[in-house]
Amino acid sequence: MMSRWPALFLMVCAIIIVCFPAAAEKISDLNKKLPIAGVLKVEGHVVKIYKCPPCPPPGQCKPCMGDNIVISENNKLIDDYSGLTSKEMVIFIHPGDAEKLVPGEYYFFSVKILDRKSTGVPLNDVELVSFDKRH
Fold it and tell me: What's the pTM value of the predicted model, to 2 decimals?
């Protein structure tokens, strides 16, 4: 009977992880902690979606910081990056992600903290891993 305990324990742990995933953090809490690496969960409203403009022929592209979104604890759409506060976060996205996100909607995001910094915010660049819309 004792030999079943390790298997039972692992099964219960797996159920807990699947049914009760790690809670997403508030943007302001992450901006206070300033993590330098790792994959984290964060939640917020999409308040800006930016896609780099297509390159005109013959491929002389204007400089672009990369496709990105801004998420916020407040559901107030923004036009630019000036005035970002500790309640906002810039997340770099992959091609095709912008079309799947809706401005003003609330999402849970899994993001990766990168080892580079290309924006004026204190946190290193953040890259989207996945997202889930919650009602």
Answer: 0.80
